[in-house]
């Protein structure tokens, strides 16, 4: 059993790591070590903590991949999965249905902004984005606008690892060595105020972004553009918060040009920003579709989906092509176990976690902000319970320490020693702990991060890299 779980026992943990090096291809590997990577084994989780293969307890700083929203080892979630699997573990979704998927859709629609009324379930975030885009293509085909298919995306974006979703990704390293459907995608600037042109204030920067958006549409022609896809807060790009009012202005331009606005809330939904959905409640926008995943089950089961506007569905129902089929579905669409655990997870969020997340968020942000005292730190930014510590060579040039691209990895290594898992992103560290984190635990997390960054500064100085 130990060899299978890696829990607690250091030797069993080492075996698992060795077996992985021989047989496992890990996600996001480097060519030089693909299929042979040694990654830290995580054996157990409990609340905001995880335990590594050596039995060392760490704060789960990134909550898995922004997903363990209600925390690890929730017995009620484990139990509901067991009970549902014992009652009905699967049904064939293209001619039968199950009750948990319908009930979850009703509750999701209740929380969704505008006229978003129906849910299409997927297996995660990439398949949710893929579904929204294929739905847009189908919608325009049925409306007799087969040329209206281009997709607007932005620098800094991350939308997934399936082919079309990945084609939207705007971080250079996601595309440097990878192909994509470039003929379908138009890239715009990242709405990153930290890296706005020198001497420009944020309001002028917002005007510049909006002007770019309008100009590109005018240049290409709205009749060729099907959708804009954007994260309300660019998560994997480094927790990039757009300038005030930017999202509302982009939303209005999309509406004026019959371009579907797809809000990718794979990270921001289900509590990360204190609400089930952030589009309406935090940013005041009503998208045509919202994609979600991760926090919908707090990572206990692979589930995602798209919430779709009633207006779009109504248009399809009234089309001249009642026989046209949206030929799109996954074996695990509407999975009963996933939907059952999501329902229980939503109960927990509504009953205890959302209010707590809203209450501690200002403290979380204020404590992290104190790290700007450290000279390596260029900026700490964030919203709700997501934040990014961005390191720079110097604050004047904002040079992202390209000489030492692994500064985030160095900070993570020190923090691991000290009891905190950090998500390194080149020169940045992303923090997005389970939403149940207490004020005392936030103090611990920030103290460790401060020490990890201080030790990294010493290393860089000693090695003459900074
Ligand atoms: N969209 C966003 C905004 C994401 O952050 C991610 C994953 N990090 C995805 C989509 C893809 O989700 P998944 O990994 O579940 O396919």
TrEMBL record:
PROSITE patterns: AA_TRANSFER_CLASS_3 (PS00600). One of its GO terms (cellular component) is cytosol. One of its GO terms (molecular function) is transaminase activity. Residues 1-16 are annotated as: Disordered. InterPro entries: Aminotrans_3 (IPR005814), Aminotrans_3_PPA_site (IPR049704), PyrdxlP-dep_Trfase (IPR015424), PyrdxlP-dep_Trfase_major (IPR015421), PyrdxlP-dep_Trfase_small (IPR015422). Keywords: Aminotransferase, Pyridoxal phosphate, Transferase. SUPFAM superfamilies: PLP-dependent transferases. Its cofactor is pyridoxal 5'-phosphate. Belongs to the class-III pyridoxal-phosphate-dependent aminotransferase family. This is Aminotransferase. It comes from Mesorhizobium hungaricum. The lineage of its organism: Bacteria, Pseudomonadati, Pseudomonadota, Alphaproteobacteria, Hyphomicrobiales.
């Amino acid at each position: 059993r130990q060899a299978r779980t890696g829990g607690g026992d250091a030797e069993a943990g080492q075996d698992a790591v060795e077996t992985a090096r021989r047989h496992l291809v890990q996600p996001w590997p480097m060519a030089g070590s693909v299929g042979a990577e040694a990654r830290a084994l995580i054996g157990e989780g409990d609340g905001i903590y995880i335990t590594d293969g050596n039995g060392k307890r760490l704060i789960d700083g990134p909550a898995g991949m922004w997903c363990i929203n209600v925390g690890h080892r929730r017995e009620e979630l484990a139990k509901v999965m067991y009970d549902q699997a014992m009652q009905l573990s699967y049904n064939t979704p293209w001619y039968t249905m199950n009750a948990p998927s319908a009930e979850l859709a009703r509750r999701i629609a209740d929380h969704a902004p505008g006229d978003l009324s129906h849910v299409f379930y997927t297996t995660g975030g990439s398949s949710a984005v893929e579904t929204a885009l294929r739905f847009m293509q189908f919608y325009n085909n049925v409306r007799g606008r087969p040329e209206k298919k281009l997709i607007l995306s932005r620098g800094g974006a991350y939308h997934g690892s399936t082919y079309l979703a990945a084609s939207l990704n705007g971080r250079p390293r996601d595309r440097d060595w990878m192909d994509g459907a470039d003929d379908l995608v138009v890239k715009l600037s990242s709405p990153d105020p930290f890296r706005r042109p020198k001497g420009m204030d944020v309001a002028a920067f917002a005007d510049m972004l909006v002007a770019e958006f309008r100009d590109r549409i005018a240049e290409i022609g709205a009749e060729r553009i099907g959708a804009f896809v954007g994260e309300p807060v660019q998560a994997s790009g480094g927790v990039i918060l757009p300038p005030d009012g930017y999202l509302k202005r982009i939303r209005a331009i999309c509406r004026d040009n019959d371009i579907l606005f797809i809000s990718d809330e794979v990270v921001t939904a289900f509590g990360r920003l204190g609400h089930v959905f952030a589009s309406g409640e935090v940013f005041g926008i009503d998208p045509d579709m919202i994609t979600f995943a991760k926090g919908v089950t707090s990572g206990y089961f692979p589930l995602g989906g798209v919430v779709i506007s009633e207006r779009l569905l109504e248009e399809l129902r009234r089309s001249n092509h009642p026989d046209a089929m949206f030929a799109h579905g996954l074996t695990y669409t509407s999975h009963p176990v996933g939907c059952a655990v999501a329902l229980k997870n939503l109960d927990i969020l509504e009953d205890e976690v959302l209010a707590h997340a809203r209450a501690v968020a200002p403290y979380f942000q204020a404590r992290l902000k104190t790290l700007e005292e450290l000279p390596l730190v260029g900026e700490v930014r964030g919203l709700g319970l997501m934040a990014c510590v961005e390191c720079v060579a110097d604050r004047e040039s904002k040079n992202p320490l390209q000489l030492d691209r692994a500064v985030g990895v160095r900070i993570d290594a020190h923090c691991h020693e000290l009891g905190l898992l950090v998500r390194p992103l080149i020169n940045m560290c992303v923090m997005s702990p389970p939403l149940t984190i207490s004020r005392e635990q936030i103090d611990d997390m920030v103290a460790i991060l401060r020490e990890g960054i201080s030790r990294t500064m010493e290393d860089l100085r000693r090695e003459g890299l900074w």
